Structure formats: C-alpha cells, structure tokens
Prior knowledge:
Elements: E1 13-19, H1 23-28, H2 32-40, E2 50-54, E3 60-68, H3 70-75, H4 79-85, E4 90-95, H5 100-113, E5 128-130, H6 138-156, H7 164-178, E6 181-186, H8 189-192, H9 196-202, E7 210-216, E8 222-227, E9 229-233, H10 242-245, H11 253-267, E10 273-283, E11 295-297, E12 303-305, H12 313-325, E13 331-336, H13 340-346, E14 351-354, H14 358-368, E15 375-377, E16 395-396, H15 405-414, E17 422-426, E18 430-431, E19 441-442, H16 447-458
Parallel strand pairs: 1-3, 1-4, 4-5, 8-10, 8-13, 9-10, 12-16, 13-17, 14-15
Antiparallel strand pairs: 2-3, 6-7, 7-10, 11-12, 14-17, 18-19
Helix pairs in contact: 4-5, 5-6, 6-11, 9-12, 11-16, 14-16
Amino acid sequence: MPLSFADPDAFSRPVHVVAxxxxxxxxxxxxxxxxxxxxxTGFEAGLGEVRLLPGASGGIAxxxxxxxxxxxxxxxxxxxxxxxxxxPEGDWHLAGPLGADDLAEAAxxxxxxxxxxxxYRSGRGSKARLKLPEGCDRVRLxxxxxxxxxxxxxxxxxxxxxxxxELESALLSLAERFxxxxxxxxxxxxxxxxxxxxxxxxxxxxxxxRLLDMRWGNAGPRLTLVGKGVCFDTGGLDIKxxxxxxxxxxxxxxxxxxxxxxxxxxxxxxxxxLRVLVPAVENAISGNAMRPGDILVSRKGLTVEVNNTDAxxxxxxxxxxxxxxxxxxxxxxxxxxxxGAARVAxxxxxxxxxxxxxxxxxxxxxxxxxxxxxxxxxxxxxxYEAMIEPGIADLDxxxxxxxxxxxxAALFLRRFVDNPRYVHFDIYGHTPADAPGRxxxxxxxxxxxxxxxxxxxxxx
Length: 460
C-alpha cells in the first residue's frame, strides 16, 4: 500500500496532544463550549484517548489526543501514532509539548498503524494524513515503514502461497528493485555445493529446498545478514501437535526480517557491501525425511546428532552461517524464529539477542529506544556448552532437559561462526493481539534497532 505524509503546504487541522497532568491548565484556555464538550464526553487525556472538537459551523475544528502519564507512555509504544491514524480523513498536524524523540515515534507509529494485509480480503489503511513533524527524516521514516510492511506481508502470507519458491521470488523482486545481484542453489545442487544440512531439512518436501544469496554495494564495510526461511514447519517426524502448527507460516520470520532490513539499507543507500543469505525450506514428512538419531555432517565439517527433527532451524542456519563465515565480514547477523524458550523468557514484544562483542551489544542496546524496537541481551553462557555436546557427535541439535533452550541454540550457532563480530537474534515475528502500530499477525523485530546501530557498529 502507498505510504506518505500530508503535503507540507496543505491546510491542516491541529491535533492537540495533552498529558493527563496538564489537562486542567490546557482546558482553561479553551472556549466554554469546548470545555463543556470535553467534560460531557468524559475526556481525561488517557494515553491515546481521542476526541474531536466541533467548530462554530458544526464541522471538525481540531482533535485532542491524550498523552496520558509518564508511566503509561513507558508501557506503550506508538499510542499517539495510532490515535492520529484513526482520525477522520483529512490533513492533520501535531500540536503539543513533544520532544524530538516523541515526534519521531508518533510519525513512525502513524505510518505503521496504516498497515493492512489485503491479499485475501479488502481492507484499507488510514485515511488521515499527518504533516511530517519538524525535524523528522521523511526518507528514513518511509524506508522503515515500507520495509516493515514487506516483512509483515511475507510473514502473514500462508504457506500455500509462501513456500521456498515464493520466498525466492520475493527476494529476487527486492534485488531487482535495488539493482542487487543474486544466486540461488536448489534441490540436490545443495549437496554438490556442500550445504548438506539445508538439504537434509528440506528434502522431505516436494517443494525444493534452496539457498538464496543476494549481494548489493561495491564499497564500504562488509555486512552479512542470514535469515531462517522455514516456510512451514510440521516438526518433521517429531511432529508438532496441530495447535503447534497454527502459526508455523511465520517460521520464515527471520528471512522476512532480514529482507526488510536489507530493503532499508538499500533504500537509504548506506555505504556498505551487503550480503543476504536465506536458507529456504519446508520441514515436511515423507519416507526420506531426516530421522531422530540421524547424524548429519555440516558444511563446516562438524557432525550433528538430530535428537529432535523439530529443531531444524538451527541446522539450516548452521550451513548458511558457515558459508557466510568463509568470507571476511565486518559484521554477521543471524535472525530466526528459533525457540519457544525465548518467548517464555521475554515474551512476544522483546527481541533477545546474543553476542560476545561488548561494543556491538552496547550499540544495539543504545539504539533500541530511539528506534522504538525493544531488545534484550541474553548470555552466551560458557557452562552450557556441554549441553550441546552429545558424545556420539560433535553437536546435539536438541539437548534434553529443556533448560536454557534459547541459550543453547545460540551456542550451537556460534560453533559455525569464527568471526567474533557476530550477533544472533531469536525473534518471535508475530504480534498475538492488536497493539498500537502493530496489528495482530506478522511483525518485524530488531531490524530498526540494527539499522540505527549500524553507523556505530560499522563505523560508517
């Protein structure tokens, strides 16, 4: 859907932003009729609360949006942006004592609140048009929102229409738009090209597994993004219950998110040499499916005992990361909807990340708040290394016991990357209920924080 802000020269009506503790003073300056109207409607300036103020001729003269309390604002992102997006059709501008960060969040929230997934039924985004607040970067905000819409559309599309081939087509379209170069390895060619674990996970499906490889940029630091592209996950022979499959169209959320991040980087013309690797598979069941107890030999040469075929994401990522690590890189990032343990630990909103590099971690943590993209650093705890060493092979893809599942998955992936400048994200990629700026369904996590942190992480 097209994204835009209101024409800066067009007439617009004000959206008065009023905090709860400033409501009485603000109302004192209003005409009696407006004060009476607000009192009659019970307006208390709660966060995101909206009222329309009538004009003398009976039309809409302005809007009032509650800014709530500091506590409420700390608990909710994008409430102001959602309120503006819900206003009647027309041009609007923000009026109120907002700082630069609040204005940027409101503008981004306004754009994100306009998202609607319309592939299978009609729908519409916002009809309200917001004038870009002074000091906000129009190009950057639009790049963020357009990338997020791409990520959401990819995740929201069911596996019937978003298998490995369709994910490939989406990446090729993205590459064509920005003049990137691509290469794809499919089916048994994965074995010939020494990507055996990607093949092992995807071989049971009649939809060929593949590795997608996109490159963009000819100068600058080298940045490699690796995204898990499991387009549907039955669990394999360790089959999930039906309830566990209901959201498995989102198991390619890591791939969708790195594609969104790549779109931002290319749209903004960042001076980097970008590489995107997406192992795209469907974890299905058939006579040639990998079995519990099988031992796989990875691209890196490490052997892996498959103790659960439902822990397949780390297998395909391992081969892709080993490939990524064969080239010099200033930063390698993997993103994956990898473990339920991460959701138990931090819930659906926070994106946990892992790195041994303190400077990278600090840059990401500093970027999270201004990017409105919350993160939480998790430990690569050395004492748990023994949990991923089964004895019969070098590594175990699913340690028994159930403890520290997200940490052990991250430790597993780290075995395939020698480059110390490596960050892994274990994201959820889904909003379980409608929230400001985030409608129920697919969502990107970590991409805006990474974009914001890249200048420091790569010394751009």
